[in-house]
Amino acid sequence: MIYTVTLNPAIDKTIILEELKKGEVNRILNSRVDVGGKGINVSKVLCSLNTRSICTGILGKENSDFFLKYLTNLGIDTNFHIISGENRTNIKIVEKTNYILTDINDRGFKMTMKDLDNFLSYFLFFVKEGDIVVISGSLPEGIDSDSYGYIIEKLKEKKAKVVLDADGEPLYYGMKSIPYAIKPNIDELKKVMEIDENDMDSILSGGKRLVDTGIKKVLISLGSKGAIYITEEGSFFSESFKVPVKSTVGAGDAMVAALAYAIKNQLNDIDTLKLATACAASKVMTEGTKKPDRLLINKIVKDVGIRQL
């Protein structure tokens, strides 16, 4: 089973403008509201890949029904731990003229470490050996920055395979607990280790050092420059697939979903990177944080070029 864990879920309101003009009245061309949070976004893409996942984590009680109904309508199974509080709303402004994305993210409800322990006690009861657990996104206010490391240790005791996608200290401490796989983007990676983002050899060396620590799979997103995938078997590069952009929101989450799918289905390294690139490309062609189209993913994956490094 694949589980996706979201500790800081959000309602994502995407607003499309011709161009964002500061200090002026801006007329909305279009808007949409989706349920989000990085783990939730991963489950959406897994749904596009016809792969079942269970979406779990912590939800604030006040507007939890909206989340649960939304995910149920998508055919995604849920098993959230409910606490008091209201889930945050994030505003995502997309400028149609240049497709610049401006994120305005709320901090979300405040949690306590006791809330986290209660969730873990509940969640770990269901986790079995060989399960894949995706941990992604920001930590809510009130939770220690090393909490992902703590969660990873607990999941490894259950012999689960953990895929981590985080930023800053949560990524740093999470990596110290040696998850099975990680998916940082280049900006996230350079915060936690010394690499030159403009030097492919430096990035590759950094990824190999992570594999040497025991992390089995390292997928590094380079944004518009492509992606690098490093495992014990080898290192591979994929150029970014050129597609018309509607929104870059969730492109990284789409890559995480592809990685989890590949682990579950034992894809080889080349096919894993092809799928990750295709999922990301199809996601940027999709408005808001809704799930991408499976047929589009299948079409793109055939044309993705990979070279060994």
TrEMBL record:
Q: Which SUPFAM superfamilies match?
A: Ribokinase-like
What does it do?
A: Catalyzes the ATP-dependent phosphorylation of fructose-l-phosphate to fructose-l,6-bisphosphate.
What domain of life does the native source organism fall in? Bacteria
Q: Which residues form the Carbohydrate kinase PfkB domain?
A: 7-291
Asked if Transferase is a keyword of the record, the answer is yes
Named from the GO MF annotations, one term is: ATP binding
Gene name, Swiss-Prot/TrEMBL = pfkB
The family this protein is said to belong to: Belongs to the carbohydrate kinase PfkB family. LacC subfamily.
Name the PANTHER family on file: 1-PHOSPHOFRUCTOKINASE-RELATED (PTHR46566), ATP-DEPENDENT 6-PHOSPHOFRUCTOKINASE ISOZYME 2 (PTHR46566:SF2)
Q: Which InterPro entries match?
A: 1-PFruKinase, Carboh/pur_kinase_PfkB_CS, PfkB_dom, Ribokinase-like, Tagatose/fructose_Pkinase
Pathway given for this chain reads:
Carbohydrate metabolism; D-tagatose 6-phosphate degradation; D-glyceraldehyde 3-phosphate and glycerone phosphate from D-tagatose 6-phosphate: step 1/2
What protein name does the entry list?
Tagatose-6-phosphate kinase
GO BP annotations, alphabetical order: carbohydrate catabolic process; D-tagatose 6-phosphate catabolic process; lactose metabolic process; small molecule metabolic process
The UniProt keywords, alphabetically, are:
ATP-binding, Kinase, Lactose metabolism, Nucleotide-binding, Transferase
According to the UniProt record, one GO cellular component term is: cytosol
Per the UniProt record, the source organism is Anaerosalibacter bizertensis
Pfam families (alphabetical):
PfkB (PF00294)
Give EC number(s), comma-separated. 2.7.1.144
Reaction(s) the record says it catalyses = D-tagatofuranose 6-phosphate + ATP = D-tagatofuranose 1,6-bisphosphate + ADP + H(+); beta-D-fructose 1-phosphate + ATP = beta-D-fructose 1,6-bisphosphate + ADP + H(+)
Q: Which Gene3D superfamilies match?
A: 3.40.1190.20
Top EC class, one word: transferase
